[in-house]
Amino acid sequence: MRIVSLVPHSTELLFALGLNEEIVGVTHECDYPPQAAALPDVTHDVLAPGLSAGEIDAAVRERTQAGEAIYELDTAALRDLEPDLIVTQALCPVCAVSYEDVARVAAELPSHPRVIALDPKTLGETLGDIRTLAEATGRRREGVELIARSAGRIDRVRLAVRGRRRPRVAALEWLDPVFVAGHWTPQLIELAGGEDVFGLAGEPSETMTWEQVAEAGPEIVVAMPCGYDAARAHDEALAHAVRLRELGAGRVVAVDASAYFSRPGPRLVDGLELLAALLHPGHLDDIHLAGRAIELETLQTG
Fold first, then answer.
1. Residues facing residue 208 across a β-bridge
2. Largest CA distance in the chain
3. Which of 138, 139, 182, 276 has the fewest CB atoms below 10 angstroms from its CB?
4. pLDDT digits (tens, 9 = 90+) for 172-218
């Protein structure tokens, strides 16, 4: 089988199912596992490089309101790869090539590939996607094993934080403007032993004002700008230091959202473990935070 993945989280899942030799094309943003970066790219970003968070938000809004995608598909490259299966998504127009564009192009390819869209909104649905993709690729046993390992790690976290006081958490998915994280993130916070002050499981991320976030009284603010690693999230948080300090939280932590929170793939479980280690220090001692999370010491107010 020849597989093209048009969204990073499906690329991660395909590798986790042991389909390394069958993946023939990925997106320009597929950077995990490292060997994915060596595969041919079939997409590119149409936004100008070097934009600030506010400029990115404005550009994305302008293009999506005009019905234009922010990624473009290299149809010639896709045709040359002769895929049997294309894995994409339709949930977020900001995250990948338009599903409609993919379906239209696929219908015209000589290889007549099957197109599967993975659009999870909750942690449970991300585990369901493992089963879906495993069935589609003949990797049922690998899928069952991956789900079992993930479920076991989730249960370990739940037991580690059981009975402990739940700190109030604000998870900020973007800082200019402020977006509070939705979809699977509120579940991760709850499972990690926290109380999400805003997010509703399965619901989209939502814009808020800084004043609304402050009124919710978070004890811990987790800065997880969508698609940013920990270092870039830290820089973004420092750029909004005054606003973050005004929230009155005792701690502000920047995390690697690109790896552990933005993408609904296998590493969401790593994100859960990371959150639990942040919210309840000392109760998951084997979870290493280096490179994954950066505490903004200068913003602590308590």
1. 178
2. 63
3. 138
4. 999 999 999 999 999 999 999 999 999 788 899 999 999 999 999 99
In the chain, the number of structural domains is 2
Grade residue 284 by pLDDT with cuts at 50, 70 and 90: confident
- CA angle at 35 for the pair 31 and 40, rounded to the nearest 5°: 75
How far apart CA 240 and CA 176 sit, in angstroms, is 9
Position 10 in a domain: yes
My answer on whether 295 and 172 are in the same domain is yes
Is 156 a member of any domain? no
- Give the three-state DSSP class for 73: strand
CATH number for the domain that contains residue 246: 3.40.50.1980
In a domain, 262, yes or no: yes
Mean pLDDT of the region 137-156:
96
Residue 301 has pLDDT above 60, yes or no: no
- The pLDDT of residue 67: 61
Residues 81 and 171 in one domain: no
Enclosing domain of residue 106: 3-119
Closest CA to 266 of 134, 173, 92: 134
Average of per-residue pLDDT values in the chain: 90
Residues 112 and 186 in one domain: no
Strand order in the sheet with 114-117: 23-25, 3-5, 85-88, 114-117
- State whether 187 and 77 are in the same domain: no
pLDDT tier, 171 (very low <50, low <70, confident <90, very high otherwise): very high
For residue 46, the SS3 value is: coil
Q: So what's the pLDDT on residue 34?
A: 95
> Using CA atoms, how far apart are residues 86 and 104, in angstroms rounded to an integer?
12
H/E element, 271: helix 268-279
